[in-house]
């Protein structure tokens, strides 16, 4: 009986001691419960749940939150390699088409370029403003070998550290009409939009130059960068001369649409206008099903997409020999062989430049100058802010004032960081983002 009592007493003592230790541990841990929960939310939001709580970065996030610095904690998550592999890569995949659909995307030269500009590399700083103009190609370091992203195996992709493994190479290349690899002249380089190294990489270059008259390419650049639709840019306040030659001037809808915008509103005053960027890509780029992305140094009548998507009638369109039978606009000045563009001619009077928050040059020559000016427009940073909100905090109560504040903190023209991670950290740490 005594033995039983001693045994039970011993067990009871151990149990009471365990409860004391457990209670003491819980009380100590309780001090960090709120901070830990907030750190988990931030980490899961920004890195897609890839950052483990065992990572030292997570402990740093908890410490920041305990000090009342939610923005600092969000910065840590956004600066991690987990963010680069998750949200930065997802946004890069989306940017290959105006639909912003990452589900059909593939890692390629264009996505590697965008990721590098979102998070930086070992040797370069992040730069939103040069997404549409930097004359460079980014490959992936695989065991010391520079490898195109589209060539990576699944195992290699899973092992890529997108913050460390990207390698910057000066210049960009494409194929010529004879299937030779050639260097794209700097004035025609459009940042990530002119990068493609194979025929099936689902790059923006493949989307934009694959069919039609290159209208998809220039319209796609505008739509992705600004978040606006084609009709948002349209205006009837345009002269016939800036409407592409293949638009039929004798069409009854040319000057006045029948229940729809007139032809001239989009093709003359909108994105397809010769002045508003169409000249920067028309006739210069194409995408061939057998050769891939092409740079055409010396366009001929047969290759000039500014004369229409049907090569069989391009000669007739250029000559405009019979306006009653051949769809053409005889008043068109045609595409400038130097690829000149002028946004101010129409949009300065219609208020479009103000809507875009345009701060760069309003005229120039070539896709590169166009992309450099586009990269600092206020709307670019506001659009990216809205995209990030949609991705990580769609239920947040963000006012236009909030969006403007975040965009200003990022836009280099207003003293901003030019870093996507600033947007991510400010959105994720917003009071309504819970």
| Spatial extent as radius of gyration | 27 Å
**Reading side by side through the largest sheet, how are the strands ordered?**
2-1-3
Beta-strand content estimate: 5-15%
What's the end-to-end separation, in Å? 60 Å
Structural class: mainly alpha
**Segments where pLDDT lies below 50 for 5+ residues?**
1-30
Q: Helix proportion of residues, in percent?
A: 40-55%
The total number of structural domains is 3
Biggest sheet architecture:
3 strands, antiparallel
**Count of helical segments?**
16
Order of H and E elements:
HHHHHEEHEEEHHHEEHEHHEHHHH
- Which term fits the overall shape? globular
- Can you give the mean pLDDT? 91
Strand tally: 9
What does this protein look like?
With 434 residues, this protein is mainly α. The protein has three domains: 2-78; 84-376, no CATH class; 379-428. 42% of the residues lie in helices and 8% in strands. A three-stranded antiparallel beta sheet has the order 2-1-3, with helices on one face. β6 (285-288) and β7 (292-295) form a beta hairpin. α1 packs across α3. The chain is globular and about 80 Å long. The termini are far apart. Mean pLDDT is 91; it is low at 1-30.
């Amino acid at each position: 009986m005594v033995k039983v009592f001693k045994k039970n007493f011993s067990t009871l003592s151990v149990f009471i001691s365990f409860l004391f230790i457990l209670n003491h541990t819980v009380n100590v841990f309780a001090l960090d419960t709120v901070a830990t929960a907030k750190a988990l939310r931030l980490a899961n939001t920004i890195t897609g749940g890839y950052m483990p709580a065992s990572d030292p970065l997570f402990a740093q996030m908890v410490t920041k939150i305990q000090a009342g610095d939610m923005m600092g904690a969000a910065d840590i998550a956004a600066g991690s390699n987990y963010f680069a592999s998750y949200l930065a890569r997802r946004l890069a995949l989306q940017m290959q088409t105006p639909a912003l659909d990452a589900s059909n995307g593939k890692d390629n030269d264009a996505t590697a370029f965008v990721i590098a500009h979102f998070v930086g590399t070992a040797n370069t700083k992040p730069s939103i403003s040069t997404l549409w103009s930097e004359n460079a190609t980014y490959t992936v370091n695989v065991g010391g070998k520079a490898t195109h992203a589209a060539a990576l195996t699944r195992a290699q992709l899973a092992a890529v550290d997108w913050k460390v493994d990207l390698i910057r190479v000066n210049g960009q290349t494409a194929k010529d009409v004879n299937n030779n690899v050639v260097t794209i002249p700097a004035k025609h380089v459009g940042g990530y939009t002119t990068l493609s190294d194979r025929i099936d990489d689902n790059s923006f270059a493949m989307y934009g130059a694959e069919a039609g008259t290159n209208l998809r390419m220039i319209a796609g650049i505008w739509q992705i960068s600004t978040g606006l639709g084609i009709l948002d840019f349209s205006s009837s306040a345009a002269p016939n001369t800036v409407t592409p030659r293949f638009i039929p001037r004798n069409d009854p809808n040319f000057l006045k649409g029948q229940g729809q915008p007139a032809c001239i509103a989009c093709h003359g005053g909108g994105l397809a206008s010769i002045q508003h960027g169409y000249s920067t890509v028309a006739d210069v780029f194409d995408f061939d099903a057998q050769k891939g992305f092409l740079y055409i140094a010396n366009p001929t009548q047969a290759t000039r997409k500014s004369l229409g998507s049907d090569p069989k009638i391009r000669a007739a369109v250029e000559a405009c020999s019979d306006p009653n039978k051949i769809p053409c606009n005889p008043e068109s000045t045609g595409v400038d062989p130097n690829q000149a563009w002028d946004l101010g001619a129409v949009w300065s009077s219609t208020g479009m430049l103000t809507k875009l928050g345009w701060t760069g040059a309003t005229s120039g020559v070539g896709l590169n100058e166009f992309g450099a000016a586009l990269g600092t427009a206020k709307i670019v940073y506001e659009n990216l802010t809205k995209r990030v909100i949609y991705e990580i905090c769609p239920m947040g109560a963000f006012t236009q004032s909030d969006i403007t504040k975040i965009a200003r903190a990022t836009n280099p023209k207003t003293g901003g960081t030019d870093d996507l991670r600033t947007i991510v950290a400010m959105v994720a740490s917003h009071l309504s983002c819970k």
